[in-house]
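Q: What structure does this chain adopt?
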Amino acid sequence: MNPSRPQSQSLLPPVRAATGYSVVLPPGWRKIPLRTGTEKAIRAVVREAFTRLPRDAPPDKVGPHRLQLERTLTRMVRDARGKGGIDLYLPAGPVYGAPLAASFIVSELSLGPADPASIAAMLEAEDDAMKAVTMDGADGLRAERTAAPAPEHDVDFASRRVDYVLPVPGRGGRWLAVAFSTLGGGSPEDDIAILLAELFDAVMSTFRWGWEQR
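A:
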C-alpha cells in the first residue's frame, strides 16, 4: 500500500447501538425483571395482589391462595428464563385463587449475522400471521394467533397470543421478541381476549429504544 495515497473513508454515519428498551404500562401492570431483583419483584406483586382483601379475611383462607400465586409466578419466571426472557410483565390486581388473565415476556434472540430486512422477509414468507411493523425506527414483525392447549408443557387452556419481533439497532444479529398471551374470559376468541390484545398493542405503541451514550 502506498502510504502517500489517502485511504477512502465511509461517508455513512455509524449506526447507534440500542442498550435497552422501555414501554409505558397500563395502570395496575407490573414488571418482574428476570436477571436481577426477581424475588423482590415477585414478593411485591404478591403483596399488591392481596392488598384489597378485607382486613379481617381469615389467614387460613388467604394463605393458601397467596402461596399458590407465588408458585404460579415462580413457574412463569422459570419458563420465561428458559426462553431467553429478560423481563416479565403482568397485571397485579386482586387475586383470590384465579389464574392471571394476561402477561407478556420480553426476550433476547440471536438470529445470525444476516441483514435484518432479509430475515424479516423470510419470517414473513414462512408465516402468514406475520405482518411488517415499525417500532421506534426498527422494522420488525407482528403476529396474532390462537394457541391450542399444550398439556405436555403445563398449558391446559387455549390462549390468544400476539408476538412482536424486532432487530436491535446497532447490535448485529440480536433481536428482541415481545410475546403476549391471554386466556381472556375463558376463551381466546371472546371479547375480553380481543380487548386485552388491543391493550397490548397500545402498550407496544409506546415502545422506545434506550441508546448508548456518545
